[in-house]
């Protein structure tokens, strides 16, 4: 999966879907110190939600291509 860095929410990697614009359903990933990924939806991070929900993910940092 290809992801691109964004300063959104203190720094996340947004999934590159090939679309010209971001969609509310785009996944934004962050990683813990062990390389485990978790994601939140783009709409939750740009909205007025003070505590967006983060979902665990089975991928590790090594499974991503960073652009």
The gist of it:
With 67 residues, the protein is mainly beta. 7% of the residues lie in helices and 42% in strands. The protein is globular.
What does this entry look like structurally?
- The protein has 67 residues and is mainly β.
- The protein has one domain (2-66).
- It has one helix at 42-46, and strands at 2-6, 12-15, 27-31, 36-41, 55-60, 65-66.
- It has a 6-stranded mixed beta sheet with strand order 5-4-3-2-1-6.
- The longest helix is centred in the middle third of the chain and has 5 residues, at 42-46.
- The model has no long low-confidence stretch (mean pLDDT 92).
Question: How is this fold's topology laid out?
Answer:
Blueprint (H helix, E strand, L loop, with lengths): L1 E5 L5 E4 L11 E5 L4 E6 H5 L8 E6 L4 E2 L1
Parallel strand pairs: 1-6
Antiparallel strand pairs: 1-2, 2-3, 3-4, 4-5
